[in-house]
Structures are given as structure tokens and as C-alpha cells.
Amino acid sequence: MTDDKAPIEVDECRTVSDDLVEAMQRLIPQLSSSSSPPNRAELEEIVASPATTLFVARHRGRIVGALTLVAFRIPTGVRTRIEDVVVDETMRGRRVGEQLSEAALETARRLGARNTDLTSRPSRQAANRLYARMGFERRESNVYRFTL
Ligand SMILES: CC(C)(COP(=O)(O)OP(=O)(O)OC[C@H]1O[C@@H](n2cnc3c(N)ncnc32)[C@H](O)[C@@H]1OP(=O)(O)O)[C@@H](O)C(=O)NCCC(=O)NCCS
Question: Is residue 1 pLDDT above 90, yes or no?
């Protein structure tokens, strides 16, 4: 972990730059060993979609974390979810994940959502600590998946 005290800046990505493509190639393997990082065209799709907001955290201009907020309207209101939160291993423990999540919650509020959902496997200890500390509460529900 770096001791560098330079501030972390969190922004919404509106365009796909070379450094975003490079950063995703570095960050996504730190989140999932089974998903390949998005290529430029896939990142363009995320950035262009009204349903997804991609946030990145920068440290001295370098992208060191990312989070995607998903938002869509359903009959009962605006539903939002936080997905694919990852912080570069060299920058963990500096509340980068918290700053990314705060930015996502602010956008969710602005979009009219009353709450934001996320799921995190119990084995992801750092992530579960982060969300509990921020005030996310566990809900009792069955989480199902149909494999296609
Ligand atoms: C989960 C994750 C995004 C948290 O990011 P972060 O910026 O390090 O978050 P925080 O600084 O708020 O620290 C969160 C917890 O990580 C742990 N942590 C602290 N320093 C750490 C370090 N150097 N290395 C690893 N974990 C550390 C602590 O348990 C901390 O909680 P605490 O401060 O209450 O003790 C990051 O660990 C990560 O990318 N993990 C791999 C991918 C992942 O699990 N994503 C979440 C999917 S749901």
C-alpha cells in the first residue's frame, strides 16, 4: 500500500479514454477471475447507456478504482444497484471504495431512488466490512440465479 497522501478524486466517466481501457484490464482481474475485462466497445456501451453510470477513482491522475451504478425504472419506482466495485490492491485500505460508493449513492438519490441494493459474497471480507460500515443493511431474501 502506498503512503502517498495525494487526494483521491472520484468522477463519473462520460467518455472512454485509453487510460480507462488500460485501467479496466488491470482492475477487473482483481475483482473476478472468471470475467474478462471489458474492451473499448463494451466500455463505450456502459458509458452510453442511460442505465449505467461508471465511476472511477483517480490518485495522481491514475485510475485506482471503479464502480458501476445500475439504475432503471420498474412499476414500483426507480431501482438502483451497485455493481463491480474494485480498488487496485496497491490502494486498498484508504477508503477509495467508500468514496466510490458515496458518489454512487449521491447519484442514486438524484435519480429518485429510495434505496440502493448490492450483493457481496461473505468471503469478500473487506467488501462486507466496507458496506456495513457505510450503513448498508442485510436484507432477508433468497438470491436466485438461472445459468444460461
Ligand atoms: C472491497 C474493496 C473495493 C474495498 O476497497 P477499499 O478502498 O480498500 O475500502 P476501505 O479502505 O474502505 O477498506 C475496507 C476494508 O478493507 C480492509 N482493508 C484495509 N486495508 C486493507 C489492505 N491494505 N488490503 C486489503 N484490505 C484492506 C479492511 O477490513 C477495511 O475495513 P475497516 O477499515 O473497517 O477495517 C477492495 O478491497 C477490493 O477491490 N476488493 C476486491 C474486489 C471486491 O471484493 N470487490 C467487492 C465486490 S462486492
Answer: no
